[in-house]
Design goal:
Radius of gyration: 18 Å
Protein name: Transcriptional regulator, AraC family domain-containing protein
Domain HTH araC/xylS-type: 51-149
Order of helices and strands: HHHHHHHHHH
Shape: globular
CATH architecture of the domain at 96-148: Orthogonal Bundle
GO molecular function: DNA-binding transcription factor activity; sequence-specific DNA binding
InterPro entries: AraC_lig, AraC_XylS_family_regulators, Homeodomain-like_sf, HTH_AraC, HTH_AraC-typ_CS
Number of strands: 0
CATH topology of the domain at 96-148: Arc Repressor Mutant, subunit A
Number of helices: 10
Keywords: DNA-binding, Transcription, Transcription regulation
Length: 149
């Protein structure tokens, strides 16, 4: 506990990591309760096929993923991956990726001053226009309106 009140080089990084660990531990405990209803993607993480695919999409959303590329990385056929992923996550891999990219973009619009074009590239869209089109379709407002709201 003395680590929390320490004033030493790197203290901010240490506290950030401690907070990350605390949040992860709390979520795991919450999701492990018998009456809990964790999100489908969380449950899918323990699956030997869908789990690695979810991790790949979450860890590198800007990569130009295809079902074929995910299948190759997970060592199964495209059909097997699509079937298993959809059954466990509740939506096809590319639909999940779109939602994940847009959620990341929404967070970055709120938490950074990065341009919409920069955010678009960070989350896997080729241009600000492409991100804006998808963002408005899902969130009902433009990225700029989301940022200022």
């Amino acid at each position: 506990m003395e680590e929390v009140v320490r004033d030493a080089p790197g203290q901010e990084v240490v506290l950030d990591r401690l907070l990350d660990l605390l949040v992860i531990a709390a979520l795991r405990a919450w999701f492990d309760r018998p009456e809990a209803e964790p999100p489908a993607w969380y449950l899918a993480l323990s699956d030997p096929v869908a789990g690695p695919a979810v991790r790949l999409l979450q860890d590198d959303p800007a990569h130009p993923w295809t079902v074929a590329a995910l299948a190759a990385k997970t060592g199964v056929s495209r059909a097997a991956l699509a079937r298993r992923f959809t059954a466990l996550v509740g939506e096809p891999p590319m639909t999940y990726l779109t939602g994940w990219r847009l959620a990341l973009a929404a967070d970055r619009l709120r938490d950074t001053d990065d341009t919409i074009g920069a955010i678009a590239r960070q989350v896997g869209y080729g241009s600000a226009f492409a991100l804006s089109t998808a963002f408005k379709r899902v969130y009902g407002v433009s990225p700029q309106d989301w940022r200022t709201a």
